[in-house]
Amino acid sequence: MLQPKKTKFRKQFKGRIHGVAKGGTDLNFGQYGLKSLEPELVNAREIEAARRAITREMKRQGRVWIRIFPDVPVSSKPTEVRMGKGKGAPEFWACRVKPGRIMFEIDGVPEDVAREALRLGAAKLSVRTRFVQRIAE
Q1: Domains, the chain, ranges and CATH?
Q2: Model pTM greater than 0.90?
Q3: Could you give the angle at the alpha carbon of 97 between the alpha carbons of 51 and 70, nearest 5°?
Q4: 124 secondary structure, DSSP code
């Protein structure tokens, strides 16, 4: 699963996800993509599950680009532990996704295959998405 090799700090504040994506809103690599429609934390397991679903549907033809990376450590306290005594240990890694962000791009397959692959990938994510494609010049 995806996670940073090294970080400056073990834990981060939660924060809130405000506004729309200011970058990563256009297709840069592939012909088809999956665009986020709402702000959400997407964890590394979801990204990996979506990637597997997409590549399986494409029958390992074409190419897949993952445009998001889980770099936010999410901590939680164990169950049935009393309040206080500091912040919990890091549990998993997540990515803050804003509306308009392209999360996956694919190329090298027909449109119907791409649409179905990205639909199956979107089912694995906790964020509402939209299928987008590059306009032919």
Answers
A1: 32-77+87-133 (3.90.1170.10)
A2: yes
A3: 55
A4: T
